[in-house]
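Hi W.,

Here's what went into the run:
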Amino acid sequence: MVRVGNVIIEGDVALSPMAGISDSPYRQITKRFGSAFSYTEFVSTEQLKLGNAKSLDMFRFVEMERPIVFQIFGSDLDTVVNASEIAAEQKPDIIDLNMGCSVSKVSHNGSGAGLLKNIRLAGKMIEGIRNRTNLPVTAKIRLGWDANSLNYLETLKVLEDSGVSAISVHGRTKAMAYTGIADWNAIGEIKSRANVPIYGNGDVQSYKEALEKKKTYGVDLVLIGRKAIGNPWVFGKTPKQFFPWYQIKDVILEHLDLMLNFYPTSDDYALILFRKHFIKYIENIGFPEDTKRLLLSVASVNEFKDTLEFVKMDSTILETSELNNENINCETFVSLV
Ligand SMILES: Cc1cc2nc3c(=O)[nH]c(=O)nc-3n(C[C@H](O)[C@H](O)[C@H](O)COP(=O)(O)O)c2cc1C
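Here's what came out:
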């Protein structure tokens, strides 16, 4: 159990925020599979200020997702604090400040990981959001801008002094983006100095590994990102490869239906959005290539569902090789305006 301000979080592992992935439909699926809480995709405070409907919509959620954390990003103090008030109207449990996004358009503008270069401003944002919303405020950080500016212990101190209620740490620098390997020793060092809960994050492949990381590095919770795409089983004890195809198929259909309900359009645009999840659901399970190609090209939901129904797979051919995550990053599924 983790206490974040007045919010109690039960569980050891949660879905890491991912733009283009951690929307309400997938948060509902992962919560049901054991994710300890729900973290929205990052939402621009500039866009919230402008009343952008698409941005506001990214905060839509259902009650079963609670505890729900709204993640925001921005570089201007007033804009961030004012936007947090707009966000708070939708009654999240916690607001999180993104201090980790490495994408140039975000970080070179002073927001996301750009705040690692201006941690006092980040501290003022946290204080401002707290005062304005009365909600617990958390932050998601990296270890520093680059290897020559590893300021994570200073960041911890400044954020704690600003009243932060918990910190998620992705064990890489902004310069590393998604290359190399996450430095869990640094995450452990932060935990050993912290007075607030610390969530460790980076390269975790399985539930078992998450529990090992928790034990070894003492973190309060572990976030899983890339390995959770198309793989909600990562939040439970039994890995995906031990489930028969018909059960994987049922989850694929459940997820698709949630997306169709959440993004209703006459041309079933949700199916196109769903493709990135679908590719990951069927990766490394021996799914027939020709059927995969067909399913990724159909535009009709009925055709998609009918075709999927006819796929026959012997569960003994399921492969157990690890997903290759190297080429996925926060720019993969979003075009930032
Ligand atoms: C497609 C994608 C989108 C992401 N979007 C966000 C985001 O909106 N907010 C955020 O804090 N981190 C974001 N991240 C970073 C992840 O939350 C996580 O910190 C990172 O992927 C490392 O964890 P992993 O090794 O388990 O994937 C994103 C990562 C990916 C791959």
